[in-house]
Amino acid sequence: MRSEPTKTQVRPGIEADLDTLTAIYNHYVRETAITFDTAVFTPEERRPWLLSHPEDGPHRLMVATDAESQEILGYATSSPYRPKPAYATSVETSVYVAPGSGRRGIGTLLYGALFDALAGEDVHRAYAGIAQPNEASTRLHERFGFAHVGTYREVGRKFGRYWDVAWYEKPL
After folding, report:
1. Residue 4 above 70 pLDDT?
2. For residue 31, what are the CA distances in angstroms to 34, 39, 40, 97, 159?
3. CA distance 121 to 53
4. What gap in Å lies between CA 21 and CA 137, rounded to an integer?
5. In terms of DSSP bridges, do strands 161-171 and 61-66 run parallel, antiparallel, or are they unpaired?
6. Using one digit for the tens of pLDDT, what is the confidence trace for 10-19?
7. What whole-number distance in Å separates Cα of residue 172 and Cα of residue 170?
8. Is the predicted pLDDT of residue 171 greater than 50, yes or no?
9. 161 vs 98, 102, 157, CA distance in Å?
10. Contact present, 166 and 117 (Cβ < 8 Å)
11. How many CA atoms lie within 13 A of 150 on its CB side?
């Protein structure tokens, strides 16, 4: 059952968001296999990540906030796909929704804003790796035109078991 819609604003992430963004990410580190990080981060450790997502260019950080309280409800990023120069026109995208903010359309709003922001950039393809199973993330990516291109079997080990990652791509 979908929660009541929240009036939500999406804007670029700023340094003042760092503590909350770190807390959201750490929830997924501690509680899920959605990320393969296994140790939580301090905000100071996450600062280089935040600073690598400026307000322009192909590597963005978009933050969703409640329009009234300004509470951060989630974030989406486009990051370098791989460090080698020939990959410069490819990005890896991801969405993290704050605990308790799921099923409100926050991920959809964030991806919409992210892809709108990337529309004028020199980006050819977006990629997303989705640890399996994750039906909600799969549906979100397919809604935005991502197509499944393959699955890495048992590529990550977390919580004492191996996890598959399904890879999706989207032309931009």
Report:
1. no
2. 9, 11, 11, 13, 9
3. 14
4. 19
5. unpaired
6. 999 999 999 9
7. 6
8. yes
9. 25, 26, 5
10. no
11. 5
Structure tokens of 44? 């100071």
The values of phi and psi at residue 126, to 5°, are -115, 140
- As a whole number of angstroms, the distance between CA 53 and CA 62 comes to 9
Q: pLDDT confidence of 104, banded at 50, 70, 90?
A: confident
pLDDT confidence band for 47 (50 / 70 / 90)? very high
Residue from 8, 23, 4, 1 nearest 108 by CA = 8
DSSP-derived secondary structure for the chain: -PPPP--EEEEE--GGGHHHHHHHHHHHHHH-SSS---S---HHHHHHHHHTS-SSSS--EEEEEETTT--EEEEEEEEES-SSGGGTTEEEEEEEE-TT-TTSSHHHHHHHHHHHHHTTSS--EEEEEEESS-HHHHHHHHHTT-EEEEEEEEEEEETTEEEEEEEEEEE-
Q: Is the pLDDT of residue 115 over 60?
A: yes
Name the token pair of 21.
């963004």
* Cβ–Cβ < 8 Å for 55, 113: no
